[in-house]
Design goal:
By secondary structure, this protein is mostly helical. Helix content is about 75%, strand content about 0%. Strand 2 and strand 3 form a beta hairpin. It starts with a helix and ends with a helix.
Length: about 325
């Protein structure tokens, strides 16, 4: 009888209680799910225009740029890296594509060259990080300033206006009733998900973020994979910059300012571990929607830009805190 009682007590101790289950859920994907639902309900109550079809469609269209950036950032963060230069990459890609189109370069060729330029920028960043062993934070912080300077020098501080209907179609056009940016966004998300979860490259990305030395001992070419991640990030971010320039019909050196923080916050809010080794594109989608609905709701409520910065800063702080708690929990196991 005594042994039965002890075994029953052992089973009770092994079985996680409700608090532990709730904590695990919140630190995994639950925080993003609950946050998105609460934000959606709150904004629906506070603003009568929030649930309108036109507004929701506008939110998805405007979030396309951030979504594409966040997909690229997901790969970077899972490897244990960070890219603070993506905002400046948006500006550079915008002014490059605008300058080429203004010079008469065909739109498809201009877009292709711009994406290639983004990949080359990523190659430089990845090489500095992987081959020269410079911390990602330092490299990308320096590139943020360098690329911003390049954008201003290239344009002499004056935005380049794009009067090309074919190019504007990318950012403002429709296929049936669906905006083109949403279609491009969905394609990037699907391809990113497949690459991350169903390819050898994706498995290598997770392995490097989980334990770089173990990945190297298993025969993974860590340097090459990390460079590949930053090349991918640069090319995809350039595509996002092209879409933004198309939507605004302008290539501006100020485009993308601060968007790197939105991208990082969206990825971390979606459950990706800020310290690497864990994350999913599906989680990033939820994180982007939280940022997008928050921005839209605050604008509908006529919240001042200064207060919006304060609120978004608190959201970023919350995202980092959740990621830190998640990392501590993983280390404790």
């Amino acid at each position: 009888m005594k042994n039965n009682e002890l075994s029953g007590q052992a089973r009770m101790l092994q079985k996680p209680n409700f608090t532990r289950k709730l904590s695990a859920f919140l630190l995994d994907k639950g925080s993003a799910v609950i946050g998105l639902i609460l934000l959606f309900v709150l904004m629906s109550i506070l603003s009568g225009d929030f649930l309108s079809v036109d507004n929701l469609l506008n939110v998805f269209r405007q979030s396309a740029v951030l979504m594409i950036m966040a997909v690229a950032m997901t790969f970077v963060i899972i490897t244990g890296g960070i890219d603070l230069s993506v905002g400046s990459q948006i500006a550079v890609s915008g002014v490059v594509v605008a300058g080429m189109i203004a010079s008469g370069v065909p739109v498809p060729l201009a877009v292709l060259i711009t994406v290639m330029v983004g990949g080359i920028i990523g190659l430089g960043i990845g090489s500095a990080i992987s081959l020269q062993k410079i911390p990602p934070f330092i490299v990308t912080l320096a590139m943020l300033t360098i690329l911003s300077g390049v954008a201003f020098v290239y344009t002499k501080g004056t935005p380049i206006v794009i009067n090309n209907p074919q190019f504007r179609f990318l950012g403002r056009g429709y296929l049936g009733s669906i905006p083109i940016p949403i279609i491009i966004m969905v394609v990037v998300v699907v391809l990113g998900h497949i690459l991350l979860t169903h390819t050898r490259f994706g498995r290598y990305v997770y392995a490097i973020g989980d334990n770089e030395e173990t990945a190297r001992l298993c025969g993974i070419n860590v340097r090459l994979v990390k460079i590949g991640v930053y090349v991918l990030s640069g090319a995809v971010t350039a595509l996002a910059g092209v879409l933004l320039a198309s939507r605004l019909s302008t290539g501006s050196p100020n485009s993308g300012t601060g968007s790197e923080l939105d991208a990082i916050a969206a990825v971390v809010l979606g459950g990706t571990n800020l310290f690497g080794g864990e994350g999913k594109i599906t989680g990033t989608i939820m994180g982007v929607l939280i940022i997008a609905f928050l921005n839209n709701g605050l604008n509908l409520l006529n919240v001042s830009s200064y207060n919006q910065m304060l609120i978004k800063g608190l959201v970023i702080l919350l995202a980092v805190w959740l990621s830190t708690m998640k990392a501590r929990k993983a280390m404790a196991k």
